Amino acid sequence: MKKIDLSTNINGIKLSLCIMNASGALCCTYKDLYNLLNSSSGAIVTKSCTKNPRIGNLSPRYIEWNIGSINSMGLPNLGIDFYLDFFRKKKNNKPVFLSISGLSIKENYFLIKKASSSSNIDALEINLSCPNIIENNEILGYNFNYVSKFLENIFKFNNDKPIGLKLPPYFNNIHIEIMSSIISKFPISFITCINSLPYGLVIDSYKESTVIFPNNGIGGIGGKIIKPFALSNIFNFYSILKNKVSIIGCGGITSGKDIFDHILCGATAVQIGTEFVNKGVVIFDKLKKEFTKFLLKKGYSSLDEFRGNLKQISSKL
């Protein structure tokens, strides 16, 4: 049988498998991380951490339905010290991406500085898509002036740890062009596209109520339904940035074919969120088998043979 190579390289960080968890999905507690440590995932991404532990929003705060999920978690996490201590004490044979989402710009600087000194963390994924970092619950990734100043300050003191950005979805090409221009000015190692779609509302028609409690039932939308938005962001960022910055695809992956689509659009690796919460760590084995089988049918033996090679369909009159 033809050998299929599913390994990848995120700007120098080697992964034996291109599939990992998304931050926020079963990666918060000791048990969560232990399960990931012993799973077949190619890397571990932690829950977005803050300086101090947080309980998060009241439940119900996460609900799935047949084509998606909605959440308003409120950043529940055990604080940065827990995550740094966990990986300091546990032997690990796969890359660790520490997700950071401070409650202010100042707190983010503190977190990045602290994490940069840890030899057990391979990279930092800075969450620019949570509505809690700047005033009025604005999502930082949509405020381009803030992002530019933020990154300028980060790279004044971070010299050695690879840094990536988890981005919100962009719905206008000019915004992707602006963000790409900002990213190009700094030594960004990777971007993760995309976080959940902001400010959706799911209701229970029979109960005539919202399905989650926080924020009047309004939250981030994930799962199958967001895949087209993820692909468009990956494709457009890749079209501009090419191989200067690695792209981690995230959004709507439930099958090996979905992984293929993300990588065809330009992703170097993928993250699994809603489907991981739904299925647990067995999802990595399932997706690996499906992806391998799909590549065999296509006649590919590695990701580089098709990554970023999406073709435009021929036009018809």
Fold and architecture overview:
By secondary structure, the protein is an alpha/beta fold. Helices cover 32% and strands 19% of the residues. It has helices at 30-37, 80-89, 105-116, 144-157, 173-183, 227-241, 256-264, 274-279, 282-298; strands at residues 8-10, 13-15, 19-21, 44-45, 62-65, 68-71, 96-100, 123-127, 163-167, 190-193, 197-201, 203-204, 209-210, 218-222, 246-250, 269-272. The strands form 4 sheets. An 8-stranded parallel beta sheet has the order 3-16-15-10-9-8-7-4. A hairpin with a 4-residue loop joins strand 12 (203-204) and strand 13. The longest helix has 17 residues, at 282-298. It is globular, with a radius of gyration of 19 Å. The mean pLDDT is 95.
**Total number of helices:** 9
* Mean pLDDT metric: 95
What is the distance, rounded to the nearest whole angstrom, between the alpha carbons of the first and last residues? 44 Å
Biggest sheet, open or closed, and with what strands and sense?
8 strands, parallel
Q: How many extended strands?
A: 16
Strand % is 15-25%
Q: What is the helical fraction, as a range of percent?
A: 25-40%
Rg over CA atoms? 19 Å
List the uncertain runs: none
Q: Which strand order do you get reading across the main beta sheet?
A: 3-16-15-10-9-8-7-4
Q: Helix-strand pattern, N to C? A: EEEHEEEHEHEHEHEEEEEHEHEHH
What overall form do the CA principal axes indicate?
globular
